[in-house]
C-alpha cells in the first residue's frame, strides 16, 4: 500500500528563511566538491586536499521525535602527491550479497578524482582501498551508471560502469569487475587490520581508455550505455560514412554512446563499437604475470600477485606508466561557435539529457536522435536533476481487460541560484508543475545512479531505498528531497484524478481560510465535494475534513445529497467504532465522576518527612523567592493546567483494548492537563483521596500510567506546589495508594534488587528541571519506599532491620537532588542591571551526569559571567568560603559581615556548606571561568575586557599543570589565529589603522588583545618553569557524582596537553611585546622585519614543537633596527608621562624596565637605552625622574646641549624679555653668548622649566664631566649664568 500523496501545499514551500538578502553566509559551498550517496546516508564535502565525510545518524529532537541527521564521521587529508587537489567525488553504495538483504547497501565506496590524474577509492572511514593513475591530466568529472530493470521487452539491458573524464580522454571501468575488486580490497583491509599485518597492494583495475577527438574543449560527459541501431539507421550511417559503395553487415553492431559538452562543437556524440578496444592493464599487471610463470603456486600471498611489501624488491619510487588511449572521433555534434556547454545530466531512462551553457540556457536533448527539442532561457549557473515517478499501483489494474503496464513520468528539476528558485518541469513539452523559493547558495544533489552490484536476479523483490534529487541548504543545514506526484504529468484536461486533486487542494485552502463568510464557505464546499469523483481522492477528503476545525460547518449541513455522501464514506468506520465506544463510555463515566467534593478529614502524619523538610526548608524558601517573581512572562489561558479539559482531548488520550483502558501519551501540555484533571484536586485537598484512587483502580488504567500522570502534574506545577505546604502529605498518600494497586510493586520483588516501580519515580525526578518539586517528590517517595520495604522485611525476617539496594539508590538520589537545588538556586540569582544577562539555565541530575565531571563548574562559570563578577571578587568569595569551612564557629558572626550581596549568599549556599567541595574547588572554578570568558571574547572580540579577565582568572589558578594546559588550549584554539593575522597585516601594510579593519577589532580592542597575549605567554612560561617542582593535582569529584559520564572535563583536558618548548614561547612573547608597544604608542613598524629568517620561520608553530631558533650574535643591521624601535618606544612613553603630569595623573611606569628587558633579549646595549631615556626625560622637563634613572655613564655632552637649549629659550626666545635677562646677556662671555644663539629650543618638549631644576641639572653636569673635558669651561660659564639669572629673579 503506497502512502497517499499530500499535495495541499505543492508548489509553494513556505520557507521564510529562504528569502535571503544576498549576503548569506554560505558562498563557501560553491568552492567545494559535494557528493551525496543516492541512499542519502553519506555526504562528502571536499576542498583542495581536505575532505569531510558525513554519515546518517538517528537523533531524537526536543519533542521526542526521531529524525535522521548527517554528522561528521571522518575528516582529514586525502591527497598523497604533492600539490594535488580533489577535483571530483562520487559516493557509490554497494549492494549486499546476503540473501536476506532487502535493498539496503552493504557499504558505500567514495571515489575521488584528483588534479594529478589519480583516482582513489576509500571506505566510509577514510581507509584507502585502491589508487590508480589512469591519465596525467586532471580528473574533470566522475560518473556512474548502475543496473536498471528494463521497463519494456526489447530494451537493451545496460551494464554497470564507472566513467572518468579527462580533458582529452575518457576512461571507463566495468562495474562488475570494479564491484568484485572493491569487495576484495575491503575484506583484505579488514583482515589485515584484525591480524595487525601489513596491507597487501591489490592488482590494478582493467579499463578502457578513449582519446576524444574533434572537440576543442570538453568539460562534462555522460555515458548513455549500449545501444543497437535499427536497420534504417544502420544503412543511413553506412551511406554517410562509406559513400555509395559502403557495405552493410547483416546484424547491426552494439555501440556504447557517449555525449560530451564543451566548445567546438557545443555538444559532441561519440560511438564506440563493442570489441574495438581491449581492456588495458598497466605494466604492473604484466610484471606480475611474468613472475607467475616461475612461481605459480609457491607464493602464498594471494591471487594475481598480491604480495606483501616485505617480499617486494626495493624499487625507486616513480610514477606508474600511463597507457595510451584509443582514438575515437566525434560522430556528429551540435555546432555553435559562441556557446560553451557547462554541465550535462542524463535522464533515468537514458532517452533525454539536460545541458546548461554559459548563455544561461538549459537545453533538452533527445539522446537517440541527437537533436535539441526544447530550450529554457534565464537560468545562468543552473543545476539540473531528474525525477522519475511511477504510476500508483491499482490505478490501471482495474480495467476490465488485461492489466495495463504501469506508466512512468519524468520531470526535469532546475535550480537557478541567481534567483534562488527551484522549478520542476514536465518533459518533453510539459508545463512547469512546481516552483519553490529556496536560498541562493544551495546545491542541487542528483546522483543519477542507484546501488552497484545489482542484477536482474538479485533485484527481484527488492525495494531500492534511494532518493533521486535532494537540495542541500548550507545556511540552515537542511537536506530536502524533491518528490513529485504522478498525476502532475497528466496534462490531459479529461484526467479524472488530476482534476479531483486540484479540487481537493482548493477545498483544503478554502477550509483553512478564516476570512470567508460561513454562508459562502458552505456553498463553495458543497459544490467542491459533489464534484469529486475519484475514489482515492474521496478517502483523502474524509481525512482532511476530520482534521480541520471548520469542517462541522460543512459536514453538518442538512442537504440530502451531501449528507448521504459523507455518511456513506463513514458508515464502515462508525460500525467498527461502535463496540469500542460502548465499552469506553462506561469506563470514562467513572473518570468524569472525579469532580471536586468536600475533602475528608486528613489526619495522616508521615514520620520523618517533617525533619527532612525542615532541613531543606531554607533552600526551598530562597529558591521560591527567586523563581516566583523574577521575570514577567506571558502565558495563554488555553495552555493553563487549570483550564477545563475538552472531551475531545480527553478521549484522544484514551484507548480501549478489550476490558482495559490504556492512556496514550500525547503532547506534554495535554498530558499535564490530563494529570491535573485526575490528581490536582487531590493534591490541593479539594477531592477525596480514597474515592479517587478507588475509582481510578476500577477503570483498569495501569498504575504505571497513573504514576506518570501524577509525577507530570507535580513536576510541571512547581510554583503552585511550593505555595501549598499540605500538598506534600497529599502526595505521600497518593503515592502509597498507587503503590498498593495491583500490578504496581511486584509481589515477587527481591529487596536486594531495584524495583521498576520506584525506578520510574527516580527517573522522572532526575530528568526534571523543576529542582524543588523533584526534591520534594524524591523525599516523599523515599519515605514511602522505606515503609514498603519495612513491611516486606517484617514478613520475611521480623527480627532483622531491612537493608536494601533500593534505599541506597534513594539516598543517593535525594542527595543529588539537594545538590541540584542548591546549584539551581545559585543560577536563579538575577544578574545586575547593565550586564550581559541571558535566560536562566535549568539543570537536572541527568544533565549534570551527562555533562561529565566538569559540568557543575561549567554551570557556575557561566553564572559568574552573567553576574559580571571580577576575578578578585570571586577570589574573595572563595576565600570567605574556605575560612567558613575551616572555622565553623567564626563563620556564624562573620556571615552577615562577609556576604555583601545576594550573590555572595547564594554562592556560599551552593559552593559552601561542603555541597561541592571538589567540583567547585578554586582551581577548577578559575579554570572554567577563564575558558568561559575567552569563549565569550571569541564571540565578540571588541570586548577586550573579556579576554583580560580570562587571563586574570588564569593567573589565580594555583596548579602550574592546569595553568599550562589551559593556556596552551587557549593559545591554540582562540588566540594564535588572530595574533598571527594581526602580525602579518601590520607587517604588510605598516599601518595600524588599516590593520584594524582587516582583523575585525577596534584600536582599543586590538591594544588590549595584544596586552592579554603578552600576559598569557608570560603565564605559559612561568607555568612551564613550575611544572617540574610540583606534582600533578588529583582531580576528585563528590561521591554521589562519581557516576558522571560525558565529555572529559576542562581540567582533564588541560592535564593531557603536551608540554611547551620554552625558547619558542619566549620567542612569541618577544613578538607579542613588540606588537603591543607598537599599538600602545601608535608606532609605524614592521615587527617581523626585526627578526632574521630563522626567527620568522619559528613564529606561529606548535608551541610544543622543537624549532630552529636564532642563536649567536645578530646581524648589526637588525640590531640597529631594534635599537631604533626601542628608542622610539621610550620617546613615546616619556611623552605620555608629560601628559600625565599635566593632567595630574600617574601614568604607567613599567615601560622603561620592560624596554630594558626587551633590549637584553634583542641584543641591544642597555646603556644606550638608559642614556636616551635620561635625555628624553630632561627634554620633557621631568628632571626629578631623570635623576632617578641617571648614572655616571651618561654622556655629559648630551645634557650640556639640553641645558643650553633651556637657557637660550629663557634669554633669547621668550616673548617678554626682562631687563635683568638683557643685562645678563650683555655680561656673558662672547663664546657662551655665541653658543647660546646657535641653540634651537624648538627641539625641547617642555622649554619652560623652573630655573631651580636647570641649576640642579648644571651642577650634576659639572660633577659628571671630567675637568679635562673640552666643554668643561663652557659648563662653568653656564652655571654662573644660571645662578645670576636665578639671583635676579
TrEMBL record:
Record region (Disordered): 1-25, 879-904
One Pfam family recorded for the sequence: RAB3GAP2_N
Keywords assigned by UniProt, alphabetized: Cytoplasm, GTPase activation
Cited PANTHER family: RAB3 GTPASE-ACTIVATING PROTEIN NON-CATALYTIC SUBUNIT, RAB3-GAP REGULATORY DOMAIN
Coiled-coil spans in chain: none
GO MF annotations, alphabetized: GTPase activator activity
Domain (Rab3GAP regulatory subunit C-terminal) ranges: 705-1266
UniProt subcellular location: Cytoplasm
Gene: RAB3GAP2
Record-stated family: Belongs to the Rab3-GAP regulatory subunit family.
Name of the protein: RAB3 GTPase activating protein subunit 2 (non-catalytic)
GO cellular component: cytoplasm
Domain Rab3-GAP regulatory subunit N-terminal: 28-445
Amino acid at each position: 500500500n503506497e502512502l497517499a500523496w499530500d499535495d495541499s501545499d505543492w508548489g509553494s514551500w513556505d520557507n521564510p528563511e529562504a528569502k535571503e538578502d544576498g549576503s548569506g553566509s554560505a558562498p563557501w559551498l560553491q568552492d567545494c566538491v559535494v557528493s551525496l550517496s543516492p541512499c542519502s546516508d553519506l555526504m562528502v564535502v571536499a576542498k583542495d586536499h581536505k575532505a569531510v565525510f558525513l554519515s546518517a545518524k538517528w537523533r531524537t529532537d526536543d519533542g521526542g521525535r526521531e529524525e535522521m541527521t548527517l554528522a561528521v564521521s571522518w575528516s582529514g587529508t586525502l591527497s598523497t602527491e604533492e600539490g594535488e587537489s580533489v577535483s571530483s567525488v562520487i559516493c557509490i553504495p554497494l549492494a549486499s550479497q546476503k540473501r536476506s538483504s532487502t535493498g539496503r547497501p552493504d557499504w558505500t565506496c567514495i571515489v575521488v578524482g584528483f588534479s594529478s590524474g589519480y583516482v582513489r577509492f576509500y571506505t566510509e572511514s577514510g581507509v584507502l582501498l585502491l589508487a590508480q593513475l589512469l591519465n596525467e591530466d586532471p580528473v574533470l568529472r566522475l560518473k556512474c551508471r548502475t543496473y536498471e530493470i528494463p521497463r519494456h521487452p526489447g530494451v537493451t539491458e545496460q551494464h554497470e560502469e564507472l566513467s572518468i573524464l579527462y580533458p582529452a580522454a575518457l576512461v571507463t571501468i566495468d562495474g562488475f569487475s570494479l564491484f568484485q575488486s572493491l569487495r576484495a580490497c575491503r575484506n583484505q583491509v579488514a583482515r589485515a587490520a584484525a591480524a595487525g599485518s601489513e596491507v597487501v597492494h591489490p592488482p590494478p583495475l582493467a579499463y578502457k581508455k578513449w582519446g576524444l577527438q574533434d572537440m576543442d574543449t570538453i568539460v562534462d560527459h555522460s555515458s548513455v550505455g549500449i545501444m543497437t541501431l535499427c536497420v534504417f539507421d544502420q544503412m543511413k550511417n553506412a551511406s554517410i560514412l562509406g559513400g555509395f559503395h559502403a557495405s552493410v553487415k547483416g546484424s547491426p553492431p552494439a555501440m556504447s554512446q557517449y555525449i560530451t559538452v564543451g566548445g567546438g562543437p557545443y555538444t559532441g556524440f561519440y560511438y564506440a563499437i563493442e570489441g574495438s578496444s581491449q581492456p588495458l592493464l598497466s605494466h604492473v599487471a604484466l610484471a606480475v604475470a611474468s613472475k607467475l610463470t616461475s612461481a605459480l603456486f609457491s607464493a602464498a600471498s594471494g591471487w594475481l600477485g598480491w604480495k606483501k611489501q616485505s617480499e617486494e624488491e626495493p624499487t625507486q619510487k616513480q610514477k606508474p606508466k600511463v597507457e595510451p588511449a584509443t582514438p575515437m572521433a566525434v560522430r556528429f555534434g551540435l555546432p555553435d561557435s559562441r556557446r560553451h556547454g557547462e554541465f550535462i545530466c542524463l535522464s533515468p531512462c537514458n532517452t533525454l539529457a539536460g545541458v546548461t551553457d554559459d548563455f544561461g540556457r538549459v537545453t533538452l536533448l533527445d539522446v537517440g536522435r541527437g537533436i535539441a527539442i526544447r530550450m529554457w532561457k534565464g537560468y545562468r549557473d543552473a543545476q539540473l536533476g531528474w525525477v522519475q515517478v511511477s504510476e500508483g499501483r491499482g490505478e490501471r489494474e482495474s480495467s476490465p481487460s488485461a492489466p495495463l503496464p504501469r506508466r512512468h513520468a519524468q520531470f526535469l528539476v532546475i535550480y537557478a541560484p541567481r534567483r534562488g528558485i527551484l522549478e520542476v518541469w514536465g518533459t518533453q513539452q510539459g508545463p512547469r508543475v512546481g516552483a519553490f523559493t529556496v536560498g541562493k547558495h544551495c546545491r542541487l544533489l542528483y546522483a543519477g545512479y542507484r546501488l552497484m552490484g545489482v542484477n536482474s536476479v538479485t533485484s527481484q523483490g527488492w525495494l531500492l531505498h534511494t532518493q533521486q534529487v535532494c537540495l542541500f541548504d548550507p545556511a540552515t543545514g537542511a537536506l530536502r528531497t524533491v518528490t513529485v506526484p504522478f498525476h502532475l504529468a497528466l496534462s490531459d484536461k479529461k484526467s479524472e484524478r488530476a482534476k479531483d486533486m486540484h479540487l481537493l487542494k482548493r477545498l483544503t485552502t478554502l477550509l483553512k481560510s478564516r476570512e470567508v463568510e460561513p454562508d459562502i464557505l458552505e456553498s463553495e464546499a458543497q459544490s467542491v465535494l459533489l464534484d469529486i469523483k475519484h475514489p482515492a481522492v474521496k478517502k483523502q477528503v474524509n481525512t482532511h475534513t476530520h482534521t480541520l476545525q471548520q469542517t462541522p460547518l460543512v459536514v453538518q449541513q442538512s442537504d440530502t445529497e451531501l449528507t448521504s455522501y459523507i455518511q456513506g464514506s463513514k458508515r464502515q468506520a462508525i460500525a467498527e467504532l461502535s463496540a469500542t465506544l460502548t465499552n469506553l463510555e462506561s469506563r470514562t463515566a467513572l473518570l468524569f465522576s472525579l469532580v471536586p467534593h468536600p475533602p475528608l478529614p486528613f489526619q495522616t502524619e508521615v514520620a520523618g518527612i517533617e525533619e527532612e523538610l525542615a532541613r531543606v526548608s531554607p533552600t526551598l524558601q530562597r529558591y521560591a523567592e527567586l523563581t516566583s517573581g523574577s521575570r514577567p512572562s506571558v502565558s495563554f489561558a488555553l495552555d493553563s493546567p487549570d483550564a477545563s479539559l475538552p472531551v475531545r482531548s480527553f478521549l484522544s488520550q484514551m484507548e480501549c483494548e478489550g476490558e482495559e483502558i490504556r492512556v496514550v501519551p500525547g503532547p506534554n501540555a495535554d498530558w499535564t492537563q490530563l494529570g491535573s484533571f485526575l490528581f490536582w484536586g487531590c493534591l490541593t485537598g479539594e477531592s477525596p483521596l480514597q474515592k479517587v484512587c478507588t475509582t481510578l483502580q476500577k477503570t483498569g488504567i495501569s498504575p504505571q500510567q497513573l504514576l506518570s500522570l501524577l509525577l507530570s502534574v507535580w513536576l510541571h506545577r512547581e510554583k503552585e506546589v511550593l505555595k501549598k505546604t499540605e500538598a506534600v502529605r497529599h502526595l505521600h498518600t497518593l503515592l502509597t495508594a498507587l503503590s498498593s494497586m495491583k500490578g504496581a510493586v511486584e509481589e515477587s520483588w527481591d529487596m536486594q534488587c531495584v524495583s521498576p516501580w520506584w525506578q520510574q519515580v527516580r527517573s522522572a525526578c532526575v530528568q526534571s528541571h523543576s529542582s524543588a518539586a523533584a526534591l520534594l517528590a524524591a523525599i516523599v517517595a523515599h519515605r514511602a519506599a522505606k515503609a514498603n520495604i519495612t513491611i516486606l522485611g517484617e514478613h520475611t525476617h521480623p527480627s532483622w532491620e531491612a537493608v536494601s539496594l533500593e534505599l541506597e539508590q534513594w539516598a543517593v538520589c535525594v542527595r543529588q537532588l539537594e545538590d541540584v537545588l542548591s546549584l539551581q538556586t545559585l543560577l536563579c540569582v538575577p544578574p545586575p542591571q547593565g550586564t550581559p544577562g541571558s535566560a536562566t539555565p535549568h539543570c537536572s541530575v541527568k544533565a549534570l551526569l551527562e555533562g561529565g565531571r566538569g559540568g557543575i563548574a561549567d554551570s557556575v562559570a557561566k553564572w559568574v559571567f552573567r553576574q559580571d563578577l571580577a576575578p578578585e571578587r570571586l577570589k574573595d568569595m572563595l576565600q570567605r568560603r574556605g575560612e567558613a569551612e575551616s572555622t565553623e564557629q567564626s563563620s556564624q558572626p562573620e556571615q552577615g559581615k562577609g556576604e555583601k550581596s545576594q550573590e555572595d549568599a547564594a554562592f556560599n549556599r551552593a559552593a559552601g556548606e561542603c555541597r561541592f567541595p571538589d567540583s567547585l574547588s578554586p582551581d577548577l572554578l578559575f579554570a572554567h571561568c577563564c575558558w568561559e570568558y575567552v569563549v565569550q571574547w571569541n564571540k565578540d572580540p571588541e570586548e577586550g575586557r573579556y579576554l583580560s579577565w580570562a587571563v586574570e582568572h588564569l593567573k589565580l589558578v594555583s596548579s602550574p599543570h592546569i595553568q599550562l594546559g589551559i593556556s596552551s588550549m587557549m593559545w591554540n584554539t582562540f588566540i594564535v589565529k588572530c595574533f598571527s593575522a594581526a602580525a602579518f597585516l601590520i607587517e604588510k601594510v605598516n599601518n595600524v589603522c588599516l590593520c584594524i579593519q582587516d582583523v575585525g577589532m577596534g584600536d582599543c580592542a586590538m591594544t588590549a588583545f595584544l596586552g592579554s597575549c603578552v600576559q598569557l605567554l608570560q603565564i605559559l612560561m612561568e607555568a612551564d618553569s613550575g611544572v617540574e617542582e610540583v606534582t600533578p593535582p588529583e582531580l576528585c569529584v563528590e561521591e554521589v557524582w562519581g557516576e558522571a559520564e560525558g565529555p572529559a572535563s576542562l581540567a582533564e583536558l588541560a592535564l593531557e596537553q603536551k608540554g611547551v618548548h620554552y625558547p619558542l614561547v619566549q620567542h612569541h612573547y618577544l613578538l607579542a611585546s613588540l606588537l603591543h608597544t607598537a599599538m600602545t604608542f601608535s608606532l609605524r613598524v614592521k615587527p617581523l622585519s626585526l627578526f632574521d629568517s630563522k626567527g620568522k620561520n619559528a613564529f606561529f608553530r606548535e608551541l610544543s614543537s622543537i624549532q630552529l631558533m636564532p642563536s649567536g650574535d645578530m646581524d648589526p643591521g637588525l640590531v640597529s633596527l631594534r635599537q631604533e624601535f626601542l628608542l622610539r618606544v621610550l620617546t613615546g612613553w616619556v611623552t605620555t608621562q608629560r601628559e600625565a603630569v599635566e593632567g595630574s595623573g600617574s601614568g604607567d611606569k613599567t615601560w622603561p624596565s620592560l624596554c630594558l628587558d626587551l633590549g637584553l633579549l634583542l641584543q641591544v646595549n642597555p646603556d644606550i637605552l638608559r642614556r636616551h631615556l635620561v635625555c628624553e626625560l630632561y627634554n620633557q622637563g621631568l628632571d626629578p625622574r631623570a635623576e632617578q634613572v641617571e648614572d655616571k655613564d651618561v654622556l655629559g655632552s648630551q645634557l650640556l646641549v639640553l641645558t643650553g637649549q633651556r637657557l637660550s629659550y629663557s634669554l633669547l626666545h621668550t616673548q617678554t624679555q626682562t631687563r635683568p635677562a638683557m643685562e645678563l646677556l650683555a655680561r656673558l662671555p662672547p663664546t657662551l653668548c655665541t653658543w647660546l644663539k646657535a641653540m634651537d629650543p624648538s627641539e625641547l618638549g617642555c622649554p619652560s622649566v623652573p630655573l631651580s631644576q636647570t641649576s640642579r641639572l648644571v651642577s650634576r653636569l659639572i660633577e659628571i664631566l671630567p675637568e679635562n673635558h673640552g666643554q668643561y669651561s663652557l659648563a662653568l660659564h653656564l652655571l654662573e649664568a644660571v645662578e645670576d639669572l636665578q639671583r635676579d629673579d
